[in-house]
Amino acid sequence: MAKVTTQFRCTECGWQAAKWVGRCGECQQWGTVVDAAERTGLRRTVAPIAPTDRTRAQPITQVSTVAAVRSTSGVAEFDRVLGGGIVPGAAMLLSGEPGVGKSTLLLEVAARIAKSGKRVLYVSAEESVAQVRIRAERTGAMSDNLFLAAETDLASILGQCDAIEPSLLIADSVQTIASEAVEGIAGGPSQVREVASTLIRLAKQRDLPVILVGHVTKDGSIAGPRVLEHLVDVVCHFEGDRRSALRFIRALKNRFGPTDEVGCFEMTGDGIAEVADPSGLFLSRSEVPVSGTCITVAMEGRRALPVEVQALIVESSTPNPRRVTSGVDSARVAMILAVLERRANVALGSKDVYVSTVGGVRLIEPAADLAIALALASAANDKAYDHGLVAYGEISLAGEIRAVPADKQRANEAKRLGFGTLIDASSGTLADAKIAAMRTTITRK
User: Fold this and answer.
1) Which strand (E) or helix (H) includes residue 342?
2) I want to staple 311 with a disulfide (CB 3.0 to 4.6 A). Which of 101, 292, 303, 320 is the partner?
3) Strands, E, within 13-58: which ranges?
4) What is the pLDDT of residues 387-397, one digit of tens each?
């Protein structure tokens, strides 16, 4: 008879241990090692089940796509990120920091779909139905086809779906729903996995789109087991600075469309509003040119956005000059400062340097290098560029300006917005670009 041993396995990566530990030795996750209760030495088999007419495999050329036609959510920016609309039976996960506006956005989506004549079930596991009603009255998301339920039990949610038969199910949030069939508290790895698996299975069986709201940890990753992101079809992240009204939704995973689209929204007193053309949101309103500013064209998904980069240089009062950044990568700015001093004769080693973007947008692509460098050069010389100057390009350590993706689209967007002077990779080196930009400077009075 085979010896029965108790092993422990990580629910994230499958790592095994002879005894329980609080932290996985492979993926370094806390609280994911559970009792696997395995019997070693025994070979387990599964009896085959004959397929039915509904589940029988068929050639891919004979599969009908009629049941997978997208339907609009009524929110154009949300549809843009999803790839054109909501696919029947799709399981979507929306994550974001607390208070960023996830529930407000989904309530708006639910209301617009309900106003089109379809039934929507909004399950709030964190708020009462009265609290959701107050928000809906403030944002105008009222409809007789929008059903609210305050449930934290998975079985009760399934019962609500049987009674209402909705066309869309929204669960807010997946970390606060629990199943009695699994041990552990709500939000634990086993509970999150069971709840998500059950709701996804419901979505596939009934062609019912399901949107799950997910909490995030301190480092910005989705809370719960990593398998949650693998189970769903679409993973979207809702982000934005609380001090700014601007919000972005990005697709991190999309089985039905591209992942390079970005939706833009603005939080107002009446709820959340779409921003179809955010071209002017990241530019200053100053009519007089100011030194230390330069405009670049950033790519947010497939959308080209003009963004103003601002730099300020002052004499340092400490032995170690300060380097403060907001909206740009501090390591990238440090590299640009070194290239400026070595290749363009702009000495800033003993100065305090401050670099920021307008509107709270974050520039993470190397295409913003040239604009940052020109803004620093303008601040160092205390001369302002003309309003018609726009620059983009990646700067190498050798001082060369490298070409960036979507160059033609950036140039067309700059031309559409009225920028007359373009400095990009065709300008040559950083020193040449600085000279070309200085020809457009206006001496500050």
Assistant:
1) helix 330-343
2) 292
3) 16-17, 33-35
4) 899 999 999 99
pLDDT, residue 444, reads 45
Q: What is the pLDDT of residues 324-351, one digit of tens each?
A: 999 999 999 999 999 999 999 998 989 9
Cβ proximity of 223 and 187 under 8 Å: yes
Interhelix angle 430-438/369-381, rounded to 10 degrees, is 50
Query: 435, exposed or middle or buried, with CB in 10 Å at 0-12, 13-18, 19+?
Result: middle
pLDDT tens track for 273-315? 998 878 777 888 677 889 999 999 999 878 888 999 999 999 9
Residue 123 neighbours by CB distance under 10 Å: 23
Look up residue 197 and give its two tokens. Answer: 């698996």
Nearest Cα to 297, choosing from 369, 364, 391? 391
Phi–psi pair at 155, nearest 5 degrees = -65, -40
Using an 8 Å Cβ cutoff, are 309 and 296 in contact? yes
- Tell me which fold the domain 293-443 belongs to: Ribosomal Protein S5; domain 2 (3.30.230)
251-274 residue pLDDT tens: 999 999 888 788 889 888 888 999
Which residues define the annotated binding site for ATP? 96-103
- Determine the length of the chain: 445
Q: Please identify which residue in the block is written with the tokens 């947008």.
A: 361
CA distance 244 to 361: 10
Fold entry, domain 72-274 = Rossmann fold (3.40.50)
* pLDDT < 70 positions in the chain: 1-6, 36-46, 67, 285, 442-445
| DSSP-derived secondary structure letter, 216 | B
| CA dist 306 → 278, 281, 424 (Å) | 9, 9, 14
Element (H, E) at 213: strand 210-214
**Binding-site annotation: residue ranges:** 96-103
